Amino acid sequence: MPVYTIIGNMTGNSMDAIDLVLTRFDGNVMQDICTYTKPYAKEMQDKIEYLRARAFNKTKAEIEALPEFQNIHDEYISQIAECINEMCALNKIDKTSVDAIGFHGKTLDHNPPSKARKEKTQPYTLQIGSGQMLADLTGIPVIYDFRSDLLMAGFDGAPLVPPHNARISASEGDGCYYNGGNTSNFALVADGVARIGADAGPFNEYTDAYIRRHTNEAFDRDAMFGKKGRLNETILQELFNFGRGYYELPLPKSGDPAYYHKNEIFNYVQQLGISFEDAVHTFEYFAAYIAVQALTLVPENIAIPHRIILFGGGWKNPVVKKSFEDLLAGKGIVLPEHRQQFAALVRRLGGKTSITVSGFGDYMEARLFADLARYKLDNKVWELPELLQSGKTLVCGQVAIPGAASQYHDRINRAAKGWQAENTIK
Hints:
Blueprint: E1 3-10, E2 17-26, E3 29-39, H1 42-55, H2 60-64, H3 69-90, E4 100-103, E5 106-111, H4 113-119, E6 124-128, H5 131-138, E7 142-144, H6 146-152, H7 162-172, E8 175-180, E9 183-190, E10 193-202, H8 205-214, H9 233-247, H10 262-272, H11 276-295, E11 307-311, H12 318-328, H13 339-349, E12 354-357, H14 364-377, H15 385-390, E13 398-400, H16 419-425
Parallel strand pairs: 1-4, 4-7, 8-11, 11-12
Antiparallel strand pairs: 1-2, 2-3, 5-6, 7-13, 8-9, 9-10
Helix pairs in contact: 3-5, 8-11, 9-10, 9-11, 11-12
């Protein structure tokens, strides 16, 4: 079995930082060699948010026609390449020893089949990020655009992490692996196999954006604001109402920040005139609330493990983590419409829940894309539960070799809006 050394990269929806991890894969053994994180400047965060708004619900041709698109894209890729080169230099990594970079790209819009079916629209997903440009700037092959293959085959394309969680379970054990990032997602792993995985909903999304809007902080470090606030039940109800169309979808499903109506929520909070600290506390409580609500949707024929293994920076917020623990124990405020299903979940867990933090957690998502790249190199199917159940032999991703092309026609992924028509033309 080949041994690979691969760099994994992740820039999540929060755009808080570029995360990198260099991992050695020897069969089922994964060893992180070094890691690197570089926070994004607010200027870059603002540019991406601006582009997200301009690109929403647009086709590939319409996005490419935006006058600012190419410059923002190229700056984004250049910063990632700079970080990769810095990490290799600082850790004295010979780049010729690195087999590939696993690169996710930046998601700006997402309309997966689970949502498109309900709304009777055509599914698509939008990630920007030229793998060829990144390969040329780093001198390392890049494997990327994993979601497009899945979405064009009829799957949601996210979350991608359940098979990676299953491999980590070889050392950490079976359980419910729960990620707390900009969006929360989970995978239920039993006997070393991921049984189901899904996005839950906004986790850091509301809190981080609200903090940045009103302070010079990037996030609510140690809940310094949230701990001073109190839960506002009116806002809690409206938070669920605004995203109800997504939160009540059956599993599996994948989410996107556009579903959470962030600006409308913030305008509503302002109209109510509640305090800054109360708003932050309520957003943090809602992050935990939606994480628990998603577990109530797990089909009865799939057991929910008593062990819950947390990863992702959002769980470092003590208000969020304590609220999550309380709700799983049958404590805390629950909306009237959810009291029966939350109580049923507590009975299902039997009061035996144990919550731990993954030892692989800080760079789980970056390592995930290194793992995905390894599967492409091995020409193996990524073991998403829904993909395996379908019987399809789908290998995800495409490969960019340094110096293979002088023009970048891959700034936008293959499954962007309108891909169905493009495939028909071809």
